[in-house]
Amino acid sequence: MAFVMMMGCYDDGDKMRLDDYLTNRCDDGRISLAEAKVTRQLAEAAIAITRLIRVSGIETDLGAETGGANSDGDDQKALDVMAEEIIIEHLQNTAAAYVLSEEQDAPIALSSDEAADAASSQDQHMMVAIDPLDGSSNIAVNVTVGTIFSIMPCTNGPMPCRGRDQLAAGFFAYGPQTTLILAFARDTAPQCFVLDERDGQFVAMDDLVRIPDHSNEYAINAAYAAHWFSPVKSWMAEVLAGKEGAYSKSFRMRWVGSMVADAWRIFRRGGVFLYPGDHRKGYENGRLRLVYEANPISFLTEKAGGRAVNGSDRILDLLPEDLHQRTALIFGSAAEVDHLIAFHRNE
Ligand code: AHG
Ligand code: MN
Ligand code: MN
């Protein structure tokens, strides 16, 4: 009893649900019904993936290697494959004509009536790019993983647009809670949601998201320090010099190894994330993929008042030339990213 009183009585009766949020946006003309349905189905897929992790993970090794590899050469884990199947299944019978998946060499055409109808109506014809499971190496060790998505117009076949032309972007993080951050093109800021697993509803969290301009937290895999290009080396030297150095402040470091988890933290309290290019063979443009990872994260970042660049150029201005193209990615608190941009432009 005392414990119940201490915890308070949980009542989400006055909290906005994702369905209401989408309905409001349809009503004010910000999004189409087709966009709302695709988003809703992505949320349903995330709920199914949450259940899979929480329940099936007891009997099935979701982190087991399948023996396969995706087109980037990454070993596929059981959950990579299952999550992708679940998402594609949920996007059947929506206006999504194609799914572009990190796990597939080529676009997947969805042949539902609704997608065919949408194809005849330019403004509703869309495609969805997904990283079905971000943070694969963390599946087996019970560390947060996630699903990243980008909703794009589909005016010229399954060719991804520049990031700035995305219709919407977001990601789900499967951690102690399942959370969603989401923004549509006409939104002024992203909105965060948390899944109430009792009734399978995403409910809105507090206010709209705003990444603080300044932060003293950074995320980078420092094990690659010997391989970094000189702008990142010089920046890190300043960071490590702390208060006495040119940066004049002390930093903390966090690196989860699942970008969704590091990104969620940055959207909640600020910080800067780096996966730069480096001298390792095949890592000249870092590790992360423009279409499935960098574009959606950068879209959300800019909506939240932050910055996202490949070092010197804005990610959202890059023209994807290949479905699986990689890009260096630096995003987060505006002042910290600006500082990094200066290192890249001056060297
Ligand atoms: P994915 O599991 O979709 O391949 O993405 C993993 C990414 C990202 O989540 C993470 O930040 C990064 O790879 C970790 O890479 P390192 O193991 O090189 O640190
Ligand atoms: Mn990923
Ligand atoms: Mn992945």
Structure in a nutshell:
The chain has 347 residues and is of the alpha+beta class. Helices cover 33% and strands 21% of the residues. The protein has helices spanning 2-7, 18-27, 33-59, 78-91, 113-119, 230-241, 259-269, 290-303, 334-346, and strands at residues 65-69, 75-77, 96-101, 108-109, 126-134, 145-153, 168-174, 178-184, 191-196, 201-204, 217-219, 252-253, 272-275, 307-309, 329-332.
Describe the structure.
- With 347 residues, the protein is of the alpha+beta class.
- It folds into two domains: 18-205, Fructose-1,6-Bisphosphatase, subunit A, domain 1 (Fructose-1,6-Bisphosphatase, Chain A, domain 1), CATH 3.30.540; 217-345, D-Maltodextrin-Binding Protein, domain 2.
- 33% of the residues lie in helices and 21% in strands.
- It is built from nine helices and 15 strands.
- Strand 1 (65-69) and strand 2 (75-77) form a beta hairpin.
- The longest helix is centred in the N-terminal third of the chain and has 27 residues, at 33-59.
- The radius of gyration is 20 Å and the shape is globular.
- It starts with a helix and ends with a helix.
- The model is unreliable at 1-10 (pLDDT under 50).
- Bound molecules: 2,5-anhydro-1,6-di-O-phosphono-D-glucitol and manganese (II) ion (2 copies).
- The site of 2,5-anhydro-1,6-di-O-phosphono-D-glucitol has 12 residues, from strand 5.
